[in-house]
Amino acid sequence: MQNTKIYCLAVDDEPPALEVIKRHIGLIPDLELTATCINAVEALHILQQNQIDLLFLDIQMPQILGTDFIRTLKNPPKVIFTTAYRKFALEGFELDAADYLLKPISFERFLKAVNKVIDGRLTKINNNEIVEKKKESEQSFIFFRADRKVLKIALEDILYIESLKDYIKVITTNKTIITKQSISSLEEMLPKDSFTRIHRSYIVSLSKIESYTAELIEVAKQELPVSRMYRHELAKILKIE
Fold it and tell me: How is domain 141-238 classified at the CATH fold level?
C-alpha cells in the first residue's frame, strides 16, 4: 500500500507555539510530525536529513526571517507560514505559501490550511472523532520560557493568568512566572473545560474560583474583574442566575 503520510516539520522560536502546532498535527491522521525546532539552522539540518513534505514556519524569528529562509532553499517543501503579524501576509503568498496562519491558531483554521496542502487526501474525521482525539491529546502541563530556561508547569497548579501588554504573568500555587507571550495565544493552548477568559487581561482556572458575582471573581484571595464582553459566557459556565 502506498504511504500517504505527509511528513511535517514545525519551526518556531517559542516553545508554546510549537506545542499548539504539535497538538493540532496529532489530531490529523494523514500528518506525521518528523521534528520541531526553534531556528532556521536546525531546520536546514532536518530538511537535509529527512523527507519533509510540509513545513510550518514562523516568520518573525532571530537570525533570519522565515520568508528569507525559504528563499535560501532550492527545493522547499510546501509551506504554511505561522505568525502573529498580518504585515507579512502578502510576502508569504508571493513565496507560493499554501496558507498563512495568524496566531493564536485554532484547530478549525489549521485544518482548513492543511486541506489545501493534501488536496483531498485528508481522511475525513467526524466531529465525535475530533472531540475524542482532542481529549486524548490534552496535556496535564504546559511549558513557559522564563529566566533563560523553559519551565514545565502543571495545569492543576495554575491559579490565574494576567496580561501585561506583550507579557503575561502566570500565578501558580507556589510561584509567579513572567514570560513574553500574548494572553490570547495562551488561551488557545489551555483546555476549555478547565480555564476561562473573564477579561481581556485575565484567564482563571475554574477549579480555583473561591467565590464569584457577575462582576468579580475571587481566586487565591484576589478579586479579579469580569468584563462585559465575557460576562454572558461566564454566566453559562458558572450557572449564574
Answer: OB fold (Dihydrolipoamide Acetyltransferase, E2P) (2.40.50)
